[in-house]
Design goal:
heterotrimer, A alpha/beta (about 600), B alpha+beta (about 375), C alpha/beta (about 190), A: about 600 residues, alpha/beta, Alpha-Beta Plaits, FAD/NAD(P)-binding domain, five-stranded parallel sheet, 21 helices, elongated, C: alpha/beta, Beta Polymerase, domain 2, five-stranded mixed sheet, about 25% helix
Chain lengths: ~600, ~375, ~190
């Protein structure tokens, strides 16, 4: 074998690697830092988390459980549960992070878990690694989240168009828009707790998202026969605590309800879809005073349970405040009629123009019916308490709205001042705009203190209503004929409440102004008229701050007498009235069945 | 004298593949007379699982169909859904997808180099190539948050944009790879042992290759120019300049050389992608995954993976979940009907190298 | 459109030869052909021998449980013009049987073995319909839609203890509020358990 020089030289090739950076682990050993967006173990900010469980729902490995954690209570808007991860199943895909509505869940750079205990694969993020906050790597942000934080905008008439007529302002979602909006929902159901009726919100939204509108309607009518009304004018407390609203716009629950209920165009179609299961007559008779939302709701579900129900309504139309208090551009007459007609079709009887106390006595009702439900609402306005209040040209908003909704005209002239900051005040102002008047709202406090819905306030501003805040009316100035010609008011400053309450307005001495007006409309609140109760009853029932005290099932201290709506709850909205009516059904049923 | 036939069970663990698969060999002496593929060690029913999950939940599943190269699976499923839905993907996302695909091709080839040469007794090669592959995994970790399972490409685009300074680090790694290629040539491709063990071994008949359903590097190793990236350009492959190398011979060596040359092409493609990448969004948001109804329809999409044509046939019935997702991996053909055919007549010691050269990956046979 | 010229030509040729076939050009490089089940074999033979679709990329099966049908999809590729044909047909779901195409393509054998195992379709003429992926499988073919994977895994495996205290969010909320979800709502409720 010949001498092979190559065989001797070649190994020296390796010398050229000398001095190069080694590819192996360095000595002394330094732990490799995980990348900026490494997907390691979970971390959960327990304060931010609201326990919606979406992480557990999306997890395709079923690795996440929602569990109770000591010190975290179930409250409205927080299930009180927190995720626990089974690290034996987790694949760190971070889908859970991507769908977390609050952004509390994230993955960390931590990926080593060494333990002697083979059962320690369960891991409650945030509890087991409180320090995880510092090493968060794969985080959720609105930009990368798989959830959609932008609401599908609702189409509306333009402000300039609106003031020309009483046409409905909100145009409603198209089918496509509704499905798109419904798809944003994560179905956690936290919202249902804040709804006075506890409507089946995630269920009907899911039904809409999947295109099963009939099921959505059925689910809505399950505990709310005024779903369409609520779809238009609900105060939607549900949206206040929507999980998606933590970082974006809440699901348009109200508009979705509106969309679903409007798919049923008339009472026949509603009946066809809902297919109400009406029990055979059970022979028990119930009287209901007032065909407002609470009375109608009670009547509907009682009639379905086989009761013989009669509503006594003092006016020519059913609906109460939703009929006479809410302007028609928010809730058209057709819509109310449709809903009332449907209720009548399943057996609810309504005696119109029958005022209890005048046309029929309360004792008669008691004699002829086994139980009586009172849902008369607050119809008597508070007086503003200023000089010249009873003069011509000074009216009350509830009366004004009632007259307008009854299609009677009231001459308000061209310069109107509305006093108050609630929804009634806004309604009166917007209605006045539709008659061409220049409208100013005088409100004692700031805009952010106004009890009215922000959408209503915004709508009013769009339509050209002036809002003058921190203005306290002092006096109506009358002309020689005793008619209001101007209003005197003073500007106020906000004084912080030493007890931590909301700031109070205080008149700035000398800062007084006079505004020429043709009409002053008062809208600072209403109360009930209980004069139809006999003295005997008045003594037995308890009335606190103008409201009748009732138990969980709307029963007063007189066992056969039930009450609901504005006269028993402080929330003063339709949905709470519906809730009262729904509860009263259970109360009345229980009372009558136990008695007989 | 006719030699006595014996049955030899090769596997399920052996150096021929990544994964577990058994080949039942009938041998006479050292020569294989009959080969039968037995799979079932890795069946996780991914296709069935996807039918029980929403479309978005399917994405973390598909990447596990191929460990060495998960990205084509993600990309395929994403593109299938996008085709059914008619969803647009932002331009930048397409560039990033191609970058991820080519990076994963490089990583897969690195792993293959280790397996192929390690199986032939060249033990330095796996140390080098697996070590170098880690630099790509580092890049993936930075880009996607995961080293092996990236779960990065999904319907509508990619999950996150490039991190700061990522481009420079990729280019640096590419420069390093390029400088390493001649060293790999010396170590593997020009190595006498390698050549001796691969030239003329495991030959696929060029005439029959198309009919047998051979794809990818094995087909190009028969001198047939076939590559999904040029035949049916997806993402932005039509905007890149690259060659499809072919080598005549149809043996292990030809397949190896195809891959070796493709590595250069991949490096060049990654550079082009980074150079041409436009700005803009990387993700066209799909609806909330819990309520994402994909319209009725079906789509067959395919990708050129490191082992050949990867096809996804996805069917939607208009519901939240896929009706059917059928994964067609190249190994489905390479590892069963083709392997059983070309193993006949091979020496037992060549069985593993042949399997490795075909890129047999049992998880994609069983899914 | 000019760019779909080849696809249209292919579609036209198929329509001319197979009058009952429903041919659509789905997009560039994709032609979908819906055929009667007895025409699949002649079609595959014609496509392979006369139209140069020599590559069988895959055979897929979709279970349309509601219609009591299996849909079979044969994907063919032409290497020259790179067009793919998806040939689809429906077969009966009760006692499903179909013709084997192993004599046309080697790889058809594997696809047919798998479909026999996963869907229970008997491919007449395939000599190797043996066990493929599953081992000693006794139950209904698992890829059929009526196979309940959750039940299977519950019957076959056990859960490691320690997770029993998991709660459902919706139930927790209804417990607090007293809401009663009616029967029709149950399908729409999102559960995390």
């Amino acid at each position: 074998m010949a001498f092979d020089i190559k065989g001797i030289i070649s190994p020296f090739n390796a010398l050229k690697q000398f001095g190069k950076t080694p590819h192996t682990v360095k000595y002394p050993y330094t732990k490799k830092e995980a990348a900026e967006r490494y997907r390691g173990f979970h971390f959960n900010d327990l304060e931010e988390c609201i326990g919606c469980g979406t992480c557990a729902t999306i997890c395709q490995n079923k690795a996440i459980d929602m569990i109770e954690i000591e010190g975290i209570e179930t409250t409205t808007g927080d299930s009180g549960l927190r995720p626990r991860v089974d690290n034996g199943r987790c694949c760190w895909c971070a889908l859970c992070v991507e769908v977390c509505p609050t952004g509390s869940l994230s993955l960390t750079k931590d990926y080593l878990h060494v333990t002697d205990d083979p059962d320690s694969f369960l891991w409650t993020p945030g509890v087991d690694n409180p320090d995880g906050e510092k090493i968060k790597s794969w985080v959720s942000d609105v930009e990368h989240s798989l959830l959609d934080y932008q609401r599908i905008p609702m189409r509306e008439l333009e402000g300039k168009e609106r003031v020309k007529s009483f046409a409905e302002v909100v145009l409603g979602y198209s089918e496509e828009e509704a499905r798109e909006e419904a798809a944003r929902c994560i179905g956690c159901g936290l919202c249902t707790d804040n709804c006075p009726v506890h409507m089946h919100i995630p269920e009907y939204i899911n039904a809409i998202a999947s295109g099963h509108y009939d099921d959505a309607v059925r689910l809505i009518y399950d505990n709310n026969p005024l779903g369409e009304t609520c779809g238009k004018v609900c105060t939607r407390r549900c949206e206040d605590i929507c999980a998606v609203s933590k970082r974006g716009e809440p699901i348009a629950i109200r508009w979705l309800k509106r969309f679903a209920t409007e798919t049923a165009a008339n009472k026949e179609i509603i009946a066809e879809i809902v297919e109400p299961e009406i029990l055979p007559p059970n022979g028990h008779k119930v009287a209901i005073i007032g065909a407002g939302p609470s009375g109608l709701t009670a009547a509907y579900y009682l009639a379905m349970r086989g009761f013989d129900v009669t509503i006594f309504e003092s006016k020519a139309h059913a609906g109460g405040m939703i009929m006479y208090g809410i302007p028609k551009y928010r809730l058209p007459l057709d819509s109310i009629d449709k809903q009332v007609e449907y209720m009548k079709s399943i057996g609810v009887k309504i005696q119109y123009n029958t005022k209890v106390g005048t046309d029929i006595t309360f004792d008669e009702l008691h004699k002829n019916f086994e139980a009586v439900f009172v849902g008369i609402g607050f119809e008597v306005p508070y007086s503003i308490g200023i000089e010249g209040e009873n003069a011509e040209g000074s009216i009350q908003a509830v009366n004004y709205l009632r007259e307008i909704n009854s299609e009677r005209n009231i001459d308000i002239g061209d310069k109107v001042v509305v006093i108050g900051g609630g929804n009634v005040a806004i309604d009166a102002a917007r209605v006045s705009r539709r008659f061409g008047a220049d409208v100013t709202i005088l409100y004692r406090r700031r805009v952010e203190d106004m009890p009215a819905d922000w959408e209503e306030i915004e709508g009013a501003e769009d339509e050209g209503v002036h809002i003058k805040t921190q203005a306290i009316p002092l006096e109506n100035i009358l002309d020689e004929n005793g008619r209001v010609k101007a209003i005197k008011y003073a500007n106020a400053e906000m004084i912080p409440d030493p007890d931590g309450g909301r700031p109070r307005p205080k008149i700035i001495e000398g800062d007084e102004h006079v505004m020429e007006v043709t009409t002053v409309i008062g809208a600072i609140g209403q109360e009930a008229d209980y004069s139809f109760f006999s003295e005997d009853i008045k003594e037995k029932i308890e009335i606190k701050r103008g409201r009748i005290v009732v138990n969980d099932l709307q029963q007063t201290s007189v066992p056969w007498l039930f009450a609901g709506g504005d006269i028993s709850n402080r929330r003063a909205d339709a949905i709470s009235a519906v809730a009262d009516g729904y509860r009263a059904v259970k109360g009345i049923e229980k009372y009558i069945l136990e008695k007989s | 004298m006719r030699e006595k036939e014996t049955t030899l069970y090769l596997g399920p663990q052996h150096p021929g593949i990544t994964g577990n698969m058994m080949v039942k060999l009938k041998v006479a002496g050292d020569t294989v007379v009959k080969a039968e593929t037995h799979v079932g060690y890795l069946h996780r029913a991914f296709e069935k699982l996807m039918e029980q999950r929403t479309w978005m939940q399917s994405f973390p599943i598909v990447c596990r169909i191929c460990v060495p190269e998960p990205d084509p699976n993600e990309e395929n499923l994403a593109r299938a859904v996008e085709e059914i839905e008619g969803r647009e993907v932002p331009e930048r996302a397409k560039y990033i997808r191609v970058m991820a695909l080519e990076l994963s091709r490089l990583a897969a080839y690195m792993l293959w180099m280790g397996g192929q040469s390690g199986g032939l007794g060249l033990y330095t090669a796996p140390q080098w190539s697996v070590g170098d592959r880690d630099y790509i995994l580092d890049l993936f970790e930075e880009l996607t948050g995961g080293r092996i399972y990236h779960m990065y490409i999904w319907a509508g685009g990619v999950r996150r944009d490039l991190p700061d300074g990522f481009k420079e680090r990729v280019l640096k790694t590419m420069d390093y790879f390029e400088s390493r290629l001649p060293e790999y040539d010396k170590l593997i491709f020009d190595n006498a042992i390698f050549k001796k063990r691969t030239i003329g071994i495991g030959v696929i008949d060029k005439e029959k290759a198309l009919e047998w359903g051979v794809v990818g590097p094995p087909l190009r190793g028969c001198g047939i120019k076939h590559d999904v990236r040029i035949d049916e350009p997806y993402e932005i492959y039509d905007k890149l300049e690259f060659e499809v190398p072919t080598v005549e011979g149809g043996d292990i060596y030809a397949r190896a050389m195809v891959r070796r040359r493709e590595m250069e092409q991949s490096i060049s493609m990654i550079r082009q992608v980074l150079d041409k990448m436009p700005g803009g969004p990387v993700y066209n948001k799909v609806p909330n995954p819990l309520n994402w109804y994909v319209p009725k329809g079906d789509a067959y999409v395919k990708t050129e993976s490191a082992r050949g044509e990867f096809g996804y046939y996805a069917v939607s019935d208009g519901s939240l979940k896929p009706r059917r997702v059928h994964v067609r991996g190249p190994a489905y053909v390479h590892g069963v009907s083709l392997l059983e055919r070309i193993l006949v007549g091979a020496n037992i010691s060549d069985v593993s190298p042949i399997m490795n050269s075909l890129g047999v990956c049992p998880p994609e046979i069983e899914r | 459109m000019e760019e779909l010229k080849i696809e249209k030509e292919i579609a036209e040729e198929i329509s001319k030869t197979f009058h009952s076939a429903e041919v659509t050009v789905k997009r560039e490089k994709r032609v979908v052909v819906k055929l009667r089940d007895d025409l699949i074999t002649p079609f595959l033979s014609y496509a392979k021998n006369n139209m140069n679709f020599i590559h069988l990329a895959h055979i897929s099966c979709v279970d349309w449980l509601e219609d009591n049908k299996f849909e079979l999809i044969y994907s063919l590729l032409n290497y020259d013009n790179k067009v793919m044909i998806l040939a689809k047909t429906y077969i009966d779901r009760e006692n499903p049987e179909f013709v084997s195409h192993t004599n046309y393509w080697d790889q058809a054998e594997t696809y047919e073995r798998e479909m026999r195992e996963m869907y229970g379709i008997n491919f007449k003429g395939n000599k190797r319909l043996t066990e493929f992926i599953l081992e000693d499988w006794q139950g209904i073919p698992p890829m059929r839609r009526d196979f309940d994977t959750v039940k299977f895994s519950q019957d076959t495996f056990y859960n490691r203890p320690g997770r029993e205290n998991a709660q459902d969010v919706r139930t927790t909320v209804t417990k607090k509020s007293g809401e009663e979800i009616p029967e029709i709502g149950k399908d729409y409720t999102v559960r995390n358990l």
